[in-house]
Amino acid sequence: MRFLITAGPTREPIDPVRFLSNRSSGKMGYALADGALSMGHEVHLITGPVSLEPPHDAVVTAVESASEMFEAVKREIKTADVAIFCAAVSDYRIEEVAEEKIKKNDDELVLRLVKTPDILGSTRTEFNFDGYLVGFAAETENLEANAAEKLRRKGCNLLVANDVSRSDIGFDHNENEVRLFFADGRREEIPRAEKGEIAAKILAAIEGDL
Ligand code: C5P
Predict the structure, then answer these.
(1) Which of 12, 34, 123, 202 has its Cα between 20 and 30 A from that of 112?
(2) Which string of b and e fits 130-140 if b means at least 16 CB within 10 Å?
């Protein structure tokens, strides 16, 4: 089968040398890409800037901003059977990117932010994707309620939720601990483990649900 996987953070430019981003390392998405390849699937990895080597056998599209990731997914999802949105996409971008490096002339600087396109949220509606859709939810509060609601609202078959308020797992760590929410109401806990092991369990859950 053909897997499309998004991974890593996005970078939203402020001026030619600065950007807004987040702490995503890309490790979870890259582990999923590795796992899917070793199960014999084809993988197209759409990745934000990370310091990881992409898996050899994956087709890789490197992007920077949320809107670049949106365009890449829109283009590539047409041929995918399974789409896993693991990227930590910035929810906001700077409305007007400065053409020159911003000088520190004033004591205060106000940046106006506007929403980025919701890639996962566009997948069913705008991209007309009818394959198996997996979203991620990084929550710091009300994990269960937010995850179940997000699953429904975005038309996912599976939502993988992790609690990013914990400093020992998740963002920028080698280990993770996640909860799976399936569209039919089933739930599954994947206890704390290396991201490679978590990825294998998520992929097994997807295969079992196809
Ligand atoms: O609503 P929230 O941002 O928490 O949803 C997270 C999920 O949505 C992740 O799967 C993430 O990759 C995806 N996402 C996206 N486009 C955005 C924001 C989030 O695809 N602009």
Answers:
(1) 123
(2) ebbbbbbbbbe
22 assigned to active site: yes
C-alpha distances in Å from residue 53, one per residue of 48, 58, 60, 105, 122: 12, 11, 11, 40, 29
Any residues with CB less than 8 A from the CB of 76 and at least 6 apart, and which?
Answer: 4, 44, 46, 61
Mutation pick for ligand 1 pocket among 65, 119, 126, 153 (CB with most ligand atoms within 8 Å): 119
Domain count within the chain: 1
Residue 142 corresponds to which amino acid?
N
pTM of the shown model = 0.95
SS3 11: coil
Domain membership of residue 203 as a residue range: 2-209
Q: By the 8 A CB rule, do 117 and 126 touch?
A: no
Query: Per residue of the chain (210 residues), what is the pLDDT tens digit?
Result: 999 999 999 999 999 999 999 999 999 999 999 999 999 999 999 999 999 999 999 999 999 999 999 999 999 999 999 999 999 999 999 999 999 999 998 899 999 999 999 999 999 999 999 999 999 998 778 888 889 999 999 999 999 998 777 777 667 678 889 999 999 999 999 999 999 999 999 999 999 999
- Cβ < 6 Å from ligand 1: which residues? 6, 66, 85, 87, 89, 91, 116, 118-120, 135-137, 150
